[in-house]
Design goal:
Elements (H helix, E strand, L loop, with lengths): L14 H11 L22 E8 L2 H17 L3 E8 L4 H10 L6 E4 L4 H6 L7 H5 L10 H5 L2 E2 L2 E2 L2 E6 L1 E6 H7 L10 H14 L5 E3 L6 H10 L5 E2 L2 E2 L3 H16 L6 H7 L8 H4 L2 E7 L3 H7 L4 E5 L10 E8 L6 H13 L1 H7 L9 H7 L6 H14 L13 H16 L5 H16 L1
Parallel strand pairs: 1-2, 1-3, 8-11
Antiparallel strand pairs: 3-13, 4-5, 6-13, 7-11, 7-12, 9-10
Helix pairs in contact: 2-15, 10-19, 15-16, 18-19
Protein name: Carbohydrate ABC transporter substrate-binding protein, CUT1 family
Organism: Micromonospora echinaurantiaca
Length: about 450
Amino acid sequence: MPAVRPSPHRAGADPGRRRVLAALLGAPVLGLAGCTAEEAAPTDDGPVELSVFWWGGTARAERTEQALRLYSERNPRVTFRVTWQGSGGYYDRLATQAAGGNVPDLFQLDDNVLTEYAERQIVLDLGRYVADKRLDLSALPPGLARYGEVAGQPVAVPAGQTAAALVFNRDLLRRLRVPEPRTGMSWDQYVAWAQQVTRAGDGRVAGTMDPSGDHRALWLWLRARGGEFYRGRQLGFAADALAEWFALWERARAGRATPSATLVEQADSGEPARQLVVTGATAASFAWSHQLPELQRLARDELALAALPGPPAAQWARASMYWAAFRGTRHPAVVVDVLNFLTTNGEAGAVLGHDRGLSASLAVRRYTEGVLADPVEQRAAAFGATLANGLGPAPNPPPAGHPRVRALLLDAAESVRAGRAEARAAATRFLAQANAALA
């Protein structure tokens, strides 16, 4: 894994942004709580080299390496070996490293595997570091901090906050003279809006993707009705509820609110380039709010955000991803100090920008207001701020087995979509298979 070094000028990189980031790195540290230069020094003596691993693209790599370099400028004895790659195959590689006891000192996770990695004792228990303030999470929204806990103990730190969002093509809607979707509309209202788009476009474009296999959408639909996706280590809903969810999207398909099953399945991978709002097959797709800049780079028209249908209180302060430390690291105090720096330092927050979502720390968010140079990042940050006061309580992170449950839900939805199974039969089969995966 190569040492952190000044990033070369890669093809497609924005020189203007590099100048902005370079200026930020040279700026003085302001006297923010948790963002001062007089941070508690790591306790290890002598040179320390830490390995760091994450998934993402070139822009994320440039920003993360610059933030780590900023830490090394303040702590010259600490250097970093970094490895990053696309999301495909990331967890396979991490699992191989875990099997060999060779996990990087600091690595990126998401809520799909957080509980599993905590229960397998791969990640460092951060409880004592939070208790003595070596890891200061006091400026995080309480729900966001809680979403990094497993069995009541902090095991990872949110690298950013995001929200499940409706990404829509603003220019297309203007051309079709259809009003924009609005935060707070019901699911039935949203389907009716999508049908209106399809009619206005004479069927050349559909209103919305079909999210019947999207666990995010189902989770928020359940919460809007007083339910939950999980209750402890078990599913929190019955077959009747899932059959009703599938039936909602059967009606949407019958009303031509969604495109063909073939197009929908192309987008089910979640890859940004395959999002139907990017390919032009629909006026709206479901994504994470922090993905807006990447989706905008792939689209010709202007994209915008609204909350998923239902009350904003169905959402919660959700970690887009986490930073976690390896339980077997030889330098736990140093790794925790780096975690604290990435979370609470204003300059680091300005360098990292909105690539992983809103800064986890509210103090860092205030510090970086007006600093984000990218107007699309500004829009994504503004969207997150509008939801902040209306969020509901955070559930526990998903239990071990969640990735399998997600795959089973997608399979069930696709079977209904393709006419291979009726909604109730698919829901019943899903529950049996999902409960077995969670057992």
